[in-house]
Amino acid sequence: MINASGMSRLVGLIRFYWGILTRDDRVHSAAQWNEFLRVRDVLETKLGNLDGKRILELGCGRFYPTTLLLSSSGRLVLGIDTAYVSPQARLFKRLSGAYRIEGSLGLGKELALTIFRKERNYRANLRRVSGSDVQSNNMNVARMDAQNLAISDDSFDAVVSIATLEHIHDVRKVVEETCRVLRTGGVGYHAIHLFPSLSGGHHPCWEWPDEVARNHRRTEAPPWDHLRAQVAVFDKSLNGLRKEDYISVFSDVFEKAEFIAEPDEGAQHFLTPDVRSELRRWSDEDLLTRTLIVVYQKA
User: pTM of the prediction?
Assistant: First the structure.
């Protein structure tokens, strides 16, 4: 028998994943395409022509968009994730793999993604926004922990991650592993979705705060709920680190790391005096900065 607390948790989980399943794939694909363009531009600026370069993506995700787009452009790419990712597997193998790794929750997510044809639709939208076919001929995907890479030293020309490091418990270990597998002159690019930001709880209803403000959209979770009462379910895998924590770690490992902070567009609209008073342990910069971009080159 499920008690009231358990039922509330179950309903929250259903709403959380329903928000993910029903979000607009066109918007999400366009955002991923823009992120890919920025990654590609940074790597080309630092490394020149990327043909034949070996690239590692940490936390490629279930739909592995950056790994896919980089490989479609002729690069040799390995995407890794701790979740179950198997691009060519048939349905039964995908379902059994998801269950083996993530249990009943993983099975349910994989089944829902299949029923809603999320991967097929997502791939189609990537083709639309990129204006080209999206192939995976030079791509490999493996299940691997970024904190303990089963990869030889000096193996890759570039390491990238998009919205991954905020899910990592030991960020320093990942950064040290990245340094180990990069060749001399190799480049790192990391886009980190910062936890204290309005969208930092990864709740689907706050994915794009500017759209919420522009459309006066009603949200299931109050603003910055993950820092406040937590009345709605949010992603519990998040490590809770601030911008300064990441800067400290990267600066220790890579002497000339570059850092770019980007705002959480639209968040200011929701930072009312009452909310600001409740969140006084956080600075305005904490609450209104969405992304930290980290770029470095191994000396």
Answer: 0.91
